[in-house]
Write a structure and sequence with these properties.
The complex is a heterodimer. Chain A is an alpha+beta fold. Chain A folds into 3 domains: 85 residues, no CATH class; 107 residues, Butyryl-CoA Dehydrogenase, subunit A, domain 2 (Beta Barrel); 149 residues, Butyryl-CoA Dehydrogenase, subunit A, domain 3, CATH 1.20.140.10. Helix content of chain A is 48%, strand content 13%. In chain A, strands 2-3-7-6 form a 4-stranded antiparallel β-sheet, with no helix packed on it. Chain A starts with 10 loop residues before the first helix and ends in an 11-residue tail after the last helix. By secondary structure, chain B is of the alpha+beta class. Chain B folds into 3 domains: 107 residues, Orthogonal Bundle (Butyryl-Coa Dehydrogenase, subunit A, domain 1); 96 residues, Butyryl-CoA Dehydrogenase, subunit A, domain 2 (Beta Barrel), CATH 2.40.110.10; 146 residues, Up-down Bundle (Butyryl-CoA Dehydrogenase, subunit A, domain 3), CATH 1.20.140.10. Chain B has 11 helices and 13 strands. In chain B, the strands form 3 sheets. In chain B, strands 4, 5, 6, 7, 8, 9, 10 and 11 form an 8-stranded mixed β-sheet that branches. Chain B has a 3-stranded mixed β-sheet with strand order 1-2-3. In chain B, a hairpin with a 2-residue loop joins strand 1 and strand 2. In chain B, helix 1 packs parallel to helix 3, helix 3 packs parallel to helix 6 and helix 4 runs antiparallel to helix 5. The longest helix of chain B has 38 residues. Chain B starts with a helix and ends with a helix. The chains are: A alpha+beta, B alpha+beta. Chains A and B meet through helix 8, helix 9, helix 10 and helix 13 of A and helix 6, strand 13, helix 7, helix 8 and helix 11 of B.
Chain lengths: 407, 373
């Protein structure tokens, strides 16, 4: 692949890479995939995702952020080019493999043993699907208060409890699980991090319907689930620290991809919606107020894209500030919501007749109302906007912490 | 950007912050004495080396402007170094022009440029920008008439450059000194005590041909006078955005320090979510504004053809955010923030004025949106 493995990239190399990716996109992105993926049954969605993942993999584009030895090796500058082009050509998104290639991989790379990496990283490339088992009914923003227990028994741990908001758990082969191994320790110190095989007896997965009517979120009930001690990741009782260290690390590139998509299809459709004559024959875009809001949103999207590119570059250089990932997550999610909100307003009553949206799309699918409601899937999970603001205030600006009730 | 480039900027920033931070405080207004300025070399950053300047670019000027915004510095930097040097460099090479550039770099002359500084500065592409003056040849001389308001640093200027339209509608620059018959310069006091403006009126003003300077003709690489004027106005708009971002950073820093120290209800007010989250929102605005500003500065320094849109993005976002941030700073400082002695009002007034100077955010957004319609 052009440029893969290079640590630094000249402008000419990047231009070559861009041309290569462009040609690949034109030849490989299935024509009309959005229409074909609208309202399809789950099996077809999963099959399409797996197929698209393998197509990207064979081009060297599935895991560009991984180290070269595991099948990645693109520099930050190269990844920026790759994601810009995938977004510009409106490629399907890797939704099903998202946790596998980002969260699972970064955890394995940062804290896994050699054996764990060898077992799972190649398997992820072959399509192994991962799910995150973090949140619980009583542990949302206060994740560290989680109650799922893992009791040591010989060479194993026996897990009992309940996980919530596990996206894609129905299709998952493996789970990144946080569970309490020391009930007597302060709440952040008694948690361990496990790799849990989803085929283990005692696991019951039940989908829950979300606000847009989809059921990718699941509850996971854990009843005497036995996990071998070899599947502990990082030291016992250090799970909280390991999760904190590994989760921020993967944010840059995932956000970059989303920012580029918002700047391409997302904004393009918004301008198109504004340019369509309404029932009276007038076009919203001829209204100065509409123009003003479009210009403001485009400006903010350009700012977001630059913020994300900067984050990725600083990540490569090892100079990321303590709150940068939170700034990007907060800004993207609230901007996404504002863009979709405006789309709903502009598209009017007709937008409400669009009852389904294309699977495998980004957070902008063209179905304005569903996308608007779906945008809360960004402002709530992964640390709510309120939690992000607290992180920015405390870690970024050094403001004093709030007194913690109950230690 | 190369590491050398970044390091040079860091050094320039450190020196500027140090000097501007030490500047004498007059009332609540910070001023810098002119000799320190002349010695600093900042006035001639964009003056070519053969004219005793630094041969640098707008990227370096931007570093100084941001620090001046941070310190709310009262100085004629906008008139002389940004608009004056920028205007002179945009013109054909006249002997008088080169002398003036050399004098500006050495701090021997203060320049004011009379051009549109309101919303007209952000006219969408394709809409002509009318110069404030008209010049017409008459009996071997040139007659000039017209008036410009809100001319930055006009009152203390030793040299005025007036943007005029010739009979063919081509923009030209007329160089006159204050006191010239037919020229009237009057101060325009504004609430922002850190800036100086004036009205420059030309009525029956006569100059000889040597004082009428022209832009280079349109070529493949440059689009003549109209494009030259647009680039000048973009420089002005971007300079104000740099200033506003510096002011916003200062207000964020001051507010965070205050919120960490001020105790109410038995704990620092910065530990309350309402205050902490407001500070976080300010930090996000500063982070986004910085990205938009850097993109525009890079585009202007490189004379990128798309620089205008990048400038309008930076100007509209940063200058609107700066007013919000200074307003939040006043709010989060509580009673002391509203007191004259806190100086927060200095930044709020400067930000509010900057928001209107060289085009309000709405005018710049209209320019951005013209591409969509």
């Amino acid at each position: 692949m052009g440029g893969v493995g290079a640590m630094t990239s000249s402008v000419a190399d990047l231009d070559d890479l861009r041309a290569t990716v462009r040609a690949w996109c034109r030849a490989n992105i299935p024509a009309g995939w959005r229409a074909a993926q609208t309202g399809v049954p789950d099996e077809q969605y999963v099959a399409f995702q797996q197929e698209w993942f393998q197509q990207l993999r064979s081009a060297g584009y599935a895991v560009p952020h991984w180290p070269a030895e595991w099948g990645g090796g693109m520099s930050a500058a190269e990844q920026i080019v790759l994601y810009q082009e995938l977004a510009a050509h409106d490629a399907p998104r890797l939704v099903l493999a998202f946790v596998s290639i980002h969260h699972a991989a970064s955890t394995l790379l940062a804290a896994g043993t050699d054996e764990q990496r060898k077992r799972h990283l190649p398997a992820i490339l072959d399509g192994e699907i991962w799910v995150q088992g973090f949140s619980e009914p009583e542990a949302g923003s206060d994740l560290a208060s989680l109650r799922t227990t893992a009791r040591a028994e010989g060479e194993s741990f026996v897990v009992n409890g309940q996980k919530l908001w596990a996206s894609g758990a129905r299709y998952a082969d493996w789970c990144l699980l946080l569970a309490r191994t020391d009930p007597d320790a302060p709440k952040r110190r008694g948690i361990s991090y496990f790799l849990m095989d989803m085929r283990t007896p005692g696991i019951d997965v039940r989908p829950i319907r979300n606000a847009v009517g989809e059921s990718h979120f699941c509850e996971i009930f854990l009843n005497d689930v036995v996990i071998p001690a070899a599947n502990l990741i990082g030291p016992r009782d250090a799970g909280w620290r390991v999760a904190q260290e590994t989760l921020g690390a993967e944010r840059g590139m995932t956000m970059l991809e989303l920012a580029e998509r918002l700047g391409n299809a997302g904004f393009r459709w918004l301008v198109e919606a504004c340019s369509r004559p309404g029932p009276g024959g007038t076009r919203p875009i001829d209204d100065a107020l509409v123009q003003d809001r479009l210009a403001a949103l485009e400006t903010e999207i350009v700012g977001l894209q630059a913020l994300c590119r900067g984050l990725v570059e600083r990540h490569d250089a090892g100079t990321v500030g303590p709150a940068e990932a939170s700034i990007v997550k907060l800004y993207y999610s609230e901007l996404l919501q504002r863009v979709m909100d405006f789309g709903v307003e502009i598209a009017g009553l007709a937008a409400h007749t669009q009852l389904t949206k294309a699977q495998s799309s980004g957070w902008e699918s063209g179905a304005w109302v569903l996308d608007f409601i779906g945008s809360w899937e960004w402002t709530i999970p992964g640390g709510t906007s309120e939690i992000q603001r607290t992180i920015i205030g405390e870690r970024g600006l050094g403001l004093p912490r709030e007194p913690v009730a109950g230690g | 950007m190369s590491t050398d480039f970044t390091e040079a900027h860091d050094e320039l920033r450190t020196v500027a912050r140090d000097l501007l931070g030490k500047a004498p405080v007059r009332g609540s207004v910070v001023g810098v004495d002119w000799p320190s300025f002349a010695e600093s070399g900042w006035l001639g950053l964009e003056v070519p080396e053969e004219l005793d300047g630094a041969g640098a670019t707008f990227a370096e000027v931007a570093v100084i402007l941001r620090e001046m915004g941070r310190a709310a510095t009262l100085s004629p930097y906008l008139g002389t170094a940004v608009l004056g040097v920028g205007t002179l460099r945009a013109l054909r090479a006249y002997a008088g022009r080169d002398e003036l550039l050399r004098a500006a770099a050495a701090g021997l002359v203060r320049i004011a440029v009379a051009l549109p500084t309101g919303d007209a500065a952000a006219a969408p592409a394709g809409e002509p920008i009318a110069p404030p003056y008209r010049v017409a040849p008459s009996a071997g001389a040139y007659h000039l008439s017209g008036r410009a308001d809100f001319v930055p640093d006009a009152v203390d200027a030793d040299q005025l450059l007036l943007l005029a339209a010739d009979p063919g509608g081509e923009p030209v620059v007329v160089a006159v000194e204050p006191g010239h018959p037919g020229l009237a310069v009057a101060g325009q006091p504004v609430l922002d005590a850190t800036r100086r403006f004036g009205t420059v009126t030309a009525d029956g003003l006569v100059v000889d041909e040597g004082a009428v300077w022209r832009f280079p003709p349109a070529t493949e690489t440059g689009a003549g006078g109209a494009a030259g004027v647009r680039r000048l106005l973009d420089r002005g708009a971007l300079a104000v955005a740099c200033d506003s971002l510096g002011g916003a950073e200062a207000m964020l820093g001051r507010t965070v320090a205050y919120a960490g120290a001020r105790q109410q209800f038995g704990r620092p007010i910065g530990s309350f979510q309402a205050v902490k989250h407001a500070c976080a929102d300010m930090a996000v605005q500063v982070a986004v504004g910085q990205e938009l500003l850097e993109a525009a500065v890079t585009a202007v320094a490189a004379a990128d053809p798309g620089a205008g849109v990048a400038v309008s993005r930076a100007k509209s976002y940063v200058c609107a955010a700066a007013v919000e941030i200074a307003g939040q700073a006043m709010q989060l400082h509580g009673g002391i923030g509203y007191a004259w002695e806190s100086g927060v009002h200095v930044y709020l007034k400067r930000a509010a004025l900057g928001r209107s100077l060289f085009g309000a955010p709405s005018a710049h957004r209209a320019r951005i949106a013209a591409r969509f319609v």
